[in-house]
Amino acid sequence: MTRETQFDIAGAPHLPPTVTVGGIMRQVLLALVPAILAHWWYFGPGIFFQIALACSFAVLFEAAMLRARQRPVRLFLGDYSAIVTGVLFALCVPPLSPWWVAATGMLFAIVIAKHLYGGLGYNLFNPAMVGFAAVIVAFPIELSQWLAPRSISPGLPNLLETMRAIATGGLPESVAWDAVSQATPLDILRTGVQDGLVITEIRGQPIFGDFGGLGWEWIANWYALGGLWLVYKRVISWHVPVAVLATVIVVATPLWLFGPDTHPSPLQHIFSGALVLAAFFIATDPVSGASTLKGRLVFGAGVAIITLAIRRYGGFPDGVAFAVLLMNMMVPLIDRYTRPRTYGHLQ
After folding, report:
1. Buried-most residue among 55, 185, 206, 305 (CB within 10 A)?
2. Class of residue 167 by CB neighbours under 10 A (exposed 0-12, middle 13-18, buried 19+)
3. Distance CA 54, CA 111 (A)
């Protein structure tokens, strides 16, 4: 005689998902913390205000658009995607940028680049880079007022001076913009080459460090460390970061060897500006980037080549944002020609 054992079975699915959008976004934010702290150390507390402003406007616009589209507000705000967009945008603007820069950037990033295309998962372009591209065109003066690193600055603005600059767009009368602000290393390189100076003469200025810009090279190191942690946790794949950095080395090295007076070294390119940030945190966006493994290599290589071209011949000293957006336009074509062969078919 046998006894039947009965088990209580709940409805499918029986196992909760191990990976969620919110979980991934939280890991991205955690990976950015070391670089944010380094940014504060070298350039003062303005970065915290920029992050707070950008995230506040991002959440505000996100909630407004979710209500307008009759989507569940609490559910989608809990995925942290708007927060990540705000943080990435804040890391690309000067620490003393006035509040309307963050407001305008998040308007274009969240409302136009994200929700007008259908919301999370449907945006064709990287939202943070759309927001940055909008403000760098709309507010070129505000976006050029970068602070000198702490070690060579006559005195970084204190907390109250930082708050006043962000709130009003101006510093107290006792503090002049020319005294605390300075062109970025990439801008100094570009201007110096145009003026006929050689790279060794340009790099003799105190704004430059061992490889790239003073302070910026350490921030880039922390970006790389956080990015490698994301690769280790399988939040991102290695393809895009390796393609971006390797392509910069492959393209910039021969130019530097044959023309060291007019072409920066590949390490100068890597450790200046937002190249490492883009390689690990921006170009790896799974929605606006390539979806195939080969396509990610092509996408990363394209970002690197366009960035180098803009830095050398374009009207902007960095060019990473425009490189990412231009490659976003190419993603459908890249995915089409890098599709893996279907199992059981010859083509």
Report:
1. 185
2. exposed
3. 13
